[in-house]
Amino acid sequence: MLDVVLISLAAFFAGVLNAIAGGGSFLTFPALVFIGVPPIAANATSAVAVFPGYLSGAAGFLSEIKAFDRRELYWLLGLSVIGGVAGALLLLVTPSEVFSFIVPWLLLFATLLFAFDKKIRAWTKGDKGTNPIGKTAATLAVTTYGGYFNGGLGIVLLALFSGLGFRDMNLMNGLKNALSFILSGASVVTFLLAGIVYMREAAIMMIAATIGGYVGARLARKLPVPVIRAIVIMVGLSMTVVFLARS
């Protein structure tokens, strides 16, 4: 019962965090590892758990998504499917020991990328007309990362959007949740076919994450952007320290 309560709370707040700014898997992944799920299976189960929460989170920003350029939206979604499958397949061939070693560094990478996204934006000069090849390569890299390691996916996507020149935080959050839903769906199917998902835990967490995603989308419109950023960075750094200590 304690395990059920723990993973339910982790999934609910992960759904809230994902809808607000990303980083929800910083909660679900360690919660699953804590109750005894092996790291690679925990990563796959975590991806399944937060998957529906992305949809409810995106629904909270439906007006912004509808106003976004359709061709660019379909381009982003298409690349998300490719990256999601590629990342999931990469995870399946990664030895457990290697994955456990690189987890804290992946967490740290995602957190620092989000923390310094303004510098990234300045470096790219916020130019939405950037070379299409560069934009495609960057998007594929980020979505492949998301398929491989769901932790910090929202953070990395927000950093990508900042680098591509997006400014509207509500639009960025809406796109982040939409892309997360699509690429996670692609990776989730791959994980399910591979049989590495803990279905009981995933089912419990999916319900809690979905509720949390809707609540988070409502909160995101009211919270100041600096508060959102501070929450994500604090959670990301905390989880990095925890996993460095474990390794």
From TrEMBL:
<keyword id="KW-1003">Cell membrane</keyword>
<dbReference type="Pfam" id="PF01925">
    <property type="entry name" value="TauE"/>
</dbReference>
<feature type="transmembrane region" description="Helical">
    <location>
        <begin position="73"/>
        <end position="92"/>
    </location>
</feature>
<feature type="transmembrane region" description="Helical">
    <location>
        <begin position="29"/>
        <end position="52"/>
    </location>
</feature>
<keyword id="KW-0813">Transport</keyword>
<keyword id="KW-0472">Membrane</keyword>
<feature type="transmembrane region" description="Helical">
    <location>
        <begin position="137"/>
        <end position="166"/>
    </location>
</feature>
<keyword id="KW-0812">Transmembrane</keyword>
<dbReference type="InterPro" id="IPR052017">
    <property type="entry name" value="TSUP"/>
</dbReference>
<feature type="transmembrane region" description="Helical">
    <location>
        <begin position="226"/>
        <end position="245"/>
    </location>
</feature>
<comment type="similarity">
    <text>Belongs to the 4-toluene sulfonate uptake permease (TSUP) (TC 2.A.102) family.</text>
</comment>
<keyword id="KW-1133">Transmembrane helix</keyword>
<protein>
    <recommendedName>
        <fullName>Probable membrane transporter protein</fullName>
    </recommendedName>
</protein>
<dbReference type="GO" id="GO:0005886">
    <property type="term" value="C:plasma membrane"/>
</dbReference>
<feature type="transmembrane region" description="Helical">
    <location>
        <begin position="178"/>
        <end position="198"/>
    </location>
</feature>
<dbReference type="InterPro" id="IPR002781">
    <property type="entry name" value="TM_pro_TauE-like"/>
</dbReference>
<feature type="transmembrane region" description="Helical">
    <location>
        <begin position="98"/>
        <end position="116"/>
    </location>
</feature>
